[in-house]
Amino acid sequence: MLMVWAAPRRSGAAPASSDVCERCIRIRVGVPTIVRGPAADIADNRFNEIALPNGRFRGFDAHGETRAIDGARPSDMAGAARVVLRPGPADSVDSCGQWLNHAERSGAMVLGFVHDETACNYPAGQTHKSMALSTSSDDGLSWKGLGQIITGTDHPTPGKNTGEGDCTAVDGRDGFFYAYCFRPRDGGLIVARAPLANPAPGQWKKFFEGRWDEPGLGGQATRLITGSGVSVARWTTTGELALTGWVPGGLGLFLTRDHVTFKAMPEPLLVLDPGVWQRPAPSELITYPVLLDASTGANQLSNTWMLVHAYWPPGGGHADHYLVFRPIEVAHSDTPSVPQVGVQLARWYNSGLHDRWSTTGPVPGNGTAYRLEARSGYLMTVAHADAPTVELEDCVSQRGGHPDHLLAEKGFCEGHAYQRLRTAGWVYAQSQGGTLPLYRCYSAREQSHFASNAADCEKLGVNERLLGYALKQ
pTM for this one? Predict the structure, then answer.
């Protein structure tokens, strides 16, 4: 079902959102790659990047302090990190930290949209958020603070998250920067804007009841949608803004042309079980999702994207924090795409553990302990409305003295003493055009299950059963 959220309007409001056919957008999410971690002090913000004059790229990761990481490509962010922003003095607006959530070139300078926190008592669930603007003349290695640009109407309160912050910003290509921010007091998303020519403190105006006339500093703002997990980019193919956000069943994509009215894509980008911040926990947790262009690292998107997010694996503690990159290919046509979203099923092999792991999720140790062995088609992120489908789960057992990862029908894992890791996705129950068979296989020699598109299990084991039919592309 297409979900639409509309902000309250009065005369002078922006024009209605576009009539772009959301059903006509085809999305294929590729194999996730862990590029940083595990560590407790990484991936605590919306990761962002700029292109450097020498053809390389500089990314910004944060955890109270912001660090710069250089790489040859936008996805090459595994290198050394150097601190470029630190917490401010006691009682300052950034006494608990400065998180650079977005960097944008503006002439010879780089603008930095910085999330600040003060009055923090994190064990008690307390902090106070705001946003500031900084500039850099050396490509983000040092910053000059210009002051706050967005603050809330409330004040620090014991035991509560207050203020307004966690903003990501985008050039709307209409003469304005737009900053989408989280407001803890009602869990809402708000938006403010400022002229590209002068985004300095005092120039930001919040959207409130149909108008852009409330001050960014302390003004009121309309709650647009539930705001946790939201970040913004601009899709150049349609000219719309594209925002990530949580939807029933996982991580969704919202589109808007008028900046305040959102249409949710009918199918999630990722199917996710409910996650919790308290760690360790039996479920995985994906946080701080952002969309960047795969070629430029910017949030002006072509049709080749990167989904970047923080990740805690099932059972992982606070020190088991990772930064993950996922490639996304997007196409738009005049006819509906059914199914709309597919997520790559990959098979990883760890020879030391005798483990073949068929999964749609991130794999700690990817590229080292685990090597990518096969791609086995795409799983759907929702059950098909007009054809029988099978929901598959990703599970693991330690019965053989090593991990035995298993892809199986929903309910199988719990009934056979396997630990459930996640919902992997859906496959068709019967063969369809453009699908591949997907079999559950078992290697007696390695005491390991795996998935294969071949009925003979590529001669790596024996065929236990047909799971269903995955999308070929």
Answer: 0.94
